[in-house]
TrEMBL record:
One GO cellular component term: lysosome
EC number annotated for this UniProt entry: 3.2.1.51
Record site feature (May be important for catalysis), residues: C268
Domain Glycoside hydrolase family 29 N-terminal intervals: 23-339
Cited PANTHER family: ALPHA-L-FUCOSIDASE, TISSUE ALPHA-L-FUCOSIDASE
GO MF annotation terms: alpha-L-fucosidase activity
Organism domain of life: Eukaryota
Quaternary structure note: Homotetramer.
Gene3D superfamilies named in the record: Glycosidases, Golgi alpha-mannosidase II
Function: Alpha-L-fucosidase is responsible for hydrolyzing the alpha-1,6-linked fucose joined to the reducing-end N-acetylglucosamine of the carbohydrate moieties of glycoproteins.
GO terms for biological process, alphabetical: fucose metabolic process; glycoside catabolic process; lipid metabolic process
Protein name: Alpha-L-fucosidase
Length: 435
């Protein structure tokens, strides 16, 4: 399906398949929230988030560089500019150096596919207002007329779809220093001079959903758009909407609910724990290691969520080797244990504390017990599963039936084989015929 530039920045996820959902949604939250979430999204579980824009040029502090420099006037940002750039240098002056000279979308897509991710979400426009496609209304503040001189949204989309990955777009509702928006803000959002043509959903915390015409947009999206049956949306549609309205819930960045929510949700997490955009001043200790990433993924999936893991490319268009290393290690683990992740559902019990932490997922009549740590012994007890004479236990990646014995009340003791190498120190027991 080929969409024009305007259409493709309205949608979170664009697919090549379709499923049937009811039409006739009205522009109110009661109606819109009744729309079933397309099944593909719950099945895929793991995606890659990409924060890339003009902020990748100074690549200092975070992707909020412009706001921290000119909005909050944070000392470290003011000092950085004073030391490294001439007086009068503006944020717009960074744009020509967002040249993406080493950007190879096929190389990116190969890395994403190797990570085991099933969907990719690219930043089409962050709060700085720069669009990664040739927006005709952005006054030269876009990637076709400035910087890379190419449609980055189109380039990434073409590459990831060739690898059968789903493709989505992040798009900020507001822009820090857009004078039309600032005038509306000063007027308490009683005026509406700021009318972005294309909206995804972030930057939602200042103005109410009525200012953004969110419900009208979503009603069109679900009823009439080219992807009405397959598009997925989140919950950031205006002040007070998050964790209440929308297709799935992001709630806060790096959201961790602690218990099984009653609504589909997603955790956005960055490999760089300090920033979503690339930072030249990043330190290795600020980068998540592989065991931490796998534990986070397992926790999220066991509690019914999706895991959207972010990397920030350089202004040159390079995914830093440390990020690539983490993504490929995720893929190596999923190549063995993905059966316990993709297309699973939360089990009746999500976790138990055995010799090491255990998280459960389920698929049809099969239960998976993912243990995130080496028990350092040849037997392993699980207290939750209820066994029968027909129960079968195997270790993913090995496949041979393991010896086991029932515990007195419920649960079982499994005789473990020598555990194979795992980049995350995490293994999965497949339990068939348990209740």
């Amino acid at each position: 399906m080929q969409l024009n530039r305007g259409e493709k920045c309205l949608f979170l996820c664009l697919l090549a398949c379709a499923s049937a959902f009811g039409a006739g949604y009205t522009p109110d939250w009661t109606s819109l929230d009744s729309r079933p979430l397309p099944e593909w999204y719950d099945d895929v579980k793991f995606g890659i988030f990409v924060h890339w824009g003009v902020f990748s040029v100074p690549s200092f502090g975070s992707e909020w560089f412009w706001w921290n420099w000119k909005g909050d006037h944070k000392a470290q940002y003011v000092e950085f500019m004073a030391k490294n750039y001439q007086p009068g240098f503006s944020y717009a002056d960074f744009a020509p150096n967002f040249h993406a000279q080493f950007f190879d979308p096929d190389e990116w897509a190969d890395i994403f596919a190797a990570s085991g991710a099933k969907y990719v979400v690219l930043t089409s426009k962050h709060h700085e207002g720069f669009t990664n496609w040739g927006s005709p209304n952005s006054w030269n503040w876009n990637s076709v007329d400035n910087g890379p001189h190419r449609d980055l949204v189109e380039d990434v989309g073409t590459a990831v779809r060739k690898r059968s990955l789903h493709y989505g777009l992040y798009h900020s509702l507001y822009e820090w220093f857009n004078p039309l928006y600032l005038n509306d803000k000063q007027n308490g959002y009683k005026t509406q001079e700021y009318k972005p043509d294309l909206i995804w959903s972030d930057g939602d915390w200042e103005a109410p959903d009525t200012y953004w015409n969110s419900t009208e947009f979503l009603a069109w999206l679900y009823n009439e758009s080219p992807v009405k049956d397959i598009v997925v949306t989140n919950d950031r549609w205006g002040r007070g909407c998050y964790c209440k309205h929308g297709g799935y819930f992001n709630c806060a960045d790096k959201f961790s609910p602690g218990e099984l929510p009653n609504h589909k949700w997603e955790k956005c997490q960055s490999v760089d724990t300090i920033s979503w955009g690339y930072r030249r001043n990043m330190r290795l200790g600020e980068v998540m290691d592989v065991p931490s990433l796998i534990k986070d993924l397992v926790y999220v999936v066991a509690l019914g969520g999706n895991y959207l893991l972010n990397v920030g490319p350089t202004a040159d268009g390079v995914i830093a080797p440390v990020f690539e290393d983490r993504l490929r290690a995720m893929g190596a683990w999923l190549a063995v244990n993905g059966e316990a992740i993709y297309s699973t559902k939360p089990w009746r019990v999500q976790t138990e504390k055995a010799a090491v932490p255990v998280w459960y997922t389920a698929k049809n009549s099969t239960v998976y017990a993912i243990f995130t740590g080496d028990p350092m012994q040849n037997t392993f007890e699980l207290s939750t599963p209820k066994t029968s004479d027909s129960s079968v236990v195997t270790l993913l990646g090995d496949g041979k039936p393991l010896k086991w014995a029932p515990l007195q009340s419920s649960g079982l003791m499994v005789k473990l084989p020598d555990l194979p190498y795992s980049p995350a120190y995490a293994w999965t027991l497949k339990l068939e015929g348990v209740a």
